[in-house]
Amino acid sequence: MTRPNGLAYQKAIELMQACATEDGFLASPTERSNYRRIWARDGVIMALAALMTEDPDLTDTARRTLERLAEHQGPHGEIPSNLDAATGRVSYGGTTGRVDANPWFVIGCAEYWHRTGDTAFIDRLRPAIERVRFLLGAWEFNNRGLLYVPVTGDWADEYVHSGYVLYDQLLYLQAQRAVAALHAEVVGSRDHGLLDAVSRLSHLIRANYWFNCADEIPPDAYHEVLYRKGLEAAPHCGNRYWMPSFSPSGYGYRFDGFANVLVSLLDVADDDQRARVDDFISAELVRDELPLLPAFHPVIEPVHEDWEELQVMFSYTFKNKPYEFHNGGLWPMLTGFYVVDLARRGRTSEAERFLDGIDRANALTIDDEPWGFPEFVHGRDLTPGGTRHQGWSAAASIMGHLALRGQPLFTIDSGLLGR
Fold first, then answer.
1. Is the pLDDT of residue 198 over 60?
2. What SUPFAM superfamilies does the record tag this protein with (predicted)?
């Protein structure tokens, strides 16, 4: 494979190398709060980028990341949110656990195995994977196919959404695909029950998170009355983007950047839905000065009814001021997944435009040092924010550059399952 030789790509590789330790990828080499730890979510995203590079050292660090997470698996099968290998301190979450750490772990293990053919690795980790699979099934609570995510239960850990969150359902879908592929390849037979679950979850996502503004209730509606109420309240977003979540109290209506990218990247969306989301992103979200995607849109301001809830939703200090972090902050990491999706859909010029946004964001100066690789960029002022030298911001650049050269991010997809 011909690797990019541009400055932005090389700086990203250097930061990934700086994050690499004998125990796996640190979220950041910066000495700040919990960032100098191995995080399941960050670590797997960095591992996916590392596998795309085909660099043996980075690939080996990807393996060690997954092995350390498995070694600290909790008593019920839960994968750590993060761990400090030096001190042995392990966290499974804050006020609630982190649901998304678990499917990310399964996805990472399967991708490492599928790319490397390391059967010894997968033989060692299959018991951990099966325990995660069981735990995720239990987190459906009512055995109806969707994960229930508590408040602060995923990457938006200080934001106001919960319930049946689309982002987590998409990770759950990919994790189920991964386990099905592992079973078919390692055991030598198909798990038809799991394949049925994959198909069922795909239908549930399509039926419950996209409002086409028709009067008909889809056969797979999770709750008919709830769906009808959500549809009636969503004229501004129906047929424009995927709904972020729903719960017994109703639907959420803000644009969830990660979910709307993954639903296309994982081939749940059809081409018309992709085009509508692309149009919404172009018309409503993107700043020409620095094209990056926000975590959520629109921004929650002090005048909004959600503000009171948002401003008490933190563990140590309030971070979600308007246009910061998940409240309208712009994320290089998230935009990297969009670049991958655009590239594989043949939308090369758009992919290059957003990749340029990632690389320019990564080059921003923090504390008088260029190439700060910020966690996010302020959605209005376009200034760097959060902790610097974020490994997954580097991973975003690597993913984008290599996707434009034809490298896939996910090698396990629905086509591999033979259905």
1. yes
2. Six-hairpin glycosidases (SSF48208)
